[in-house]
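# step 3/5: fold
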Amino acid sequence: MLICIINPNTTKKMTDRIEMVANKVASNGTSIVATNPKNGPESIEGYYDEVFCIPGILEEVFSNKEADAYIIGCFDDTGLDAVRTITNKPVLGIGDSSYHIASCLAGTFSVITTLDASVPILKNNLLKRGFDRICVNVSSVNIPVLDLDNEDSNASSSIEKEIEKSINNYKAEAIVLGCAGMADFAQKLEEKFSIPVIEGVSASIVLAEGLIRMKKNTSKLGGYSYPNPKKYSGIYKPFSLE
């Protein structure tokens, strides 16, 4: 099976890291293609950045039609619903996948993300998907996405402090790391705190493989039906569906 994971930002270094994490958890016989748009922001840190990512995400889907499933490699699940309308293959977001896995392992969980600007986005997504009832807290470490691998940012210790708060103050039974760039911290944190720590890249690969094996496709009734043919103008002309 072939899984295409799309990093919605333009930072190749992050795409490579996502691909590395995906290959570690992928089953034998699963091939991973990791890609990112040519145009757009270098990182996604709020509503403004999201808007400029979606055309590039759609282009990557159109360019990888041979894939058996697609994964949106941004924890905000940027463009997830839009992509589900242009293909009948499974499309997963690393945020949504993390919530599903967390709900299988614990009665409650907390989400720890990068910046305060992402907190309301994630809360809206949790509400939309029905996970707001078991997510007891969403917090940030106030570290920009591209600084997570910078030792001077003290990202690991900042995440640890938020986990302690989640356990002690909110009674979280599991932790969801709210950024693809946090994936490298998951195993160490799980060993230290002895509770499930979920990162979205691995979660989405496992779910995508399962859906492919089950031969399940995205429903084309209702909201995820194919878009009606129409012309697009200007720079969006390539997105015309006729």
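# step 4/5: annotate
Strands lie at 2-6, 31-35, 69-72, 91-93, 109-113, 135-140, 175-177, 197-199.
# step 5/5: archive (pending)
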